[in-house]
């Protein structure tokens, strides 16, 4: 972990992990201990690392090897690769798999980018997803039943983190709209909450009690049924690796990454607008909509450009992450809202 001695806004982008900087600040305000003590404690957690058994030693440090070993026993592996849906095209090269799977945000496993090894402790079978709240009948479904309930397809999407790094990846999944229909929301349902796993024993981040665990965030029902919204179960023609949110995560590619919880265990339909993980932690910096927008800077840095993982190429940020033709109409008349595109 980098201990910042300068103010965050004086740091070069390469040296900053903005969401982490926010957390240290918020925690210092909340629970009193000095910033340095907090950073020291967090560094200690990171050093606990991953208990490496024989399998760990055999796979060494190669992330692709880990991934292949992980999915060898995955009951859904026969569904991959899924046919590509060519409707969604890219304006840039795909990010290399090797780059995308070793640079992740997954705070349950550490508040830095190198969590991929620690995340191997996430066991993605057995796994169930509970659908509850304002639905005709709440239910809990086994992940392999869910994955087989809807045909999988591959889509090439841009992805943008609020920290200004970006990637372009082939996701595999099924339309979120199909899951919503199947869930049978009641008339009063207006928002849908996605909640991440909460097995506190396997992930050191849960001990960082200043975070509002479990990780969760929400979208409007209308956003969820947009054709771009995808329930993602795989990437690069294989089931997701744990560090990328296996076994299932929503992807709404016009929004910043932080809105989209990984490794989902619960989907809840509600009437009132929920407050998500980052908005709860730091409401002055993160809001409900979080649509990608080059013209709305983060309070501590510009959003005008983004940095592609792997190549480091700088590109201009696209309004709605380039998906305006599909989503701009969802936000007509809402331009006055804070942190809104
Ligand atoms: N459960 C959980 N989901 C999460 C996060 C997290 O820390 N925990 N980070 C979010 C953020 S900030 C981003 S940018 C994306 C990163 O996805 P990736 O690591 O697969 O690229 O996951 C999002 N979903
Ligand atoms: Mo992010």
TrEMBL record:
What is the species listed in this Swiss-Prot or TrEMBL entry?
Elioraea tepida
Q: What is this protein called?
A: Protein-methionine-sulfoxide reductase catalytic subunit MsrP
Xref: Pfam families: Oxidored_molyb
Gene Ontology molecular function terms on file: oxidoreductase activity
Under the heading NCBIfam families, the entry gives: PRK05363.1
Tell me which EC number(s) this protein carries: 1.8.5.-
Tell me the name of the encoding gene: msrP
Show where the Oxidoreductase molybdopterin-binding domain sits.
Answer: 122-278
Uppermost EC category: oxidoreductase
Q: Which UniProt keywords apply?
A: Oxidoreductase
């Amino acid at each position: 972990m980098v201990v910042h001695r300068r103010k965050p806004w004086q740091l070069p982008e390469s040296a900053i992990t903005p969401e982490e900087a926010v957390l240290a600040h918020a925690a210092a305000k909340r629970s009193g201990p000095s910033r340095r003590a907090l950073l020291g404690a967090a560094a200690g957690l990171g050093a606990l690392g991953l208990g490496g058994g024989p399998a760990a030693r055999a796979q060494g440090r190669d992330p692709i090897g880990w991934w292949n070993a992980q999915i060898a026993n995955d009951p859904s592996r026969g569904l991959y690769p899924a046919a590509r849906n060519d409707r969604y095209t890219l304006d840039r090269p795909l990010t290399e798999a090797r780059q995308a799977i070793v640079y992740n945000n997954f705070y349950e496993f550490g508040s830095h980018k190198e969590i991929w090894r620690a995340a191997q402790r996430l066991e993605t079978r057995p796994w169930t997803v509970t659908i509850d709240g304002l639905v005709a009948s709440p239910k809990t479904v086994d992940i392999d039943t869910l994955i087989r309930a809807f045909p999988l397809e591959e889509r090439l999407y841009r992805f943008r983190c609020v920290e200004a790094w970006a990637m372009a990846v082939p996701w595999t999944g099924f339309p979120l709209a199909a899951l919503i229909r199947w869930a049978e929301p009641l008339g009063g349902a207006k928002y849908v909450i996605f909640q991440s796993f909460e097995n506190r024993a396997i992930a050191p981040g849960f001990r960082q009690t200043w975070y509002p665990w479990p990780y969760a965030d929400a979208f409007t029902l209308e956003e969820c049924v947009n054709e771009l919204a995808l329930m993602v179960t795989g990437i690069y023609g294989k089931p997701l690796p744990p560090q990328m949110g296996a076994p299932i995560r929503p992807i709404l590619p016009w929004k910043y990454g932080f809105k989209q919880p990984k490794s989902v265990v619960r989907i809840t339909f509600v009437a009132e607008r929920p407050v998500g993980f980052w908005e709860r932690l730091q409401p002055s910096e993160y809001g409900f909509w979080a649509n990608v927008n080059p013209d709305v800077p983060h309070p501590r840095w510009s959003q005008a450009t983004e940095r592609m993982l792997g190549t480091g190429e700088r590109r201009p940020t696209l309004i709605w992450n380039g998906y305006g033709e599909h989503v701009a109409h969802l936000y007509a008349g809402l331009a006055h809202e804070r942190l809104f595109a």
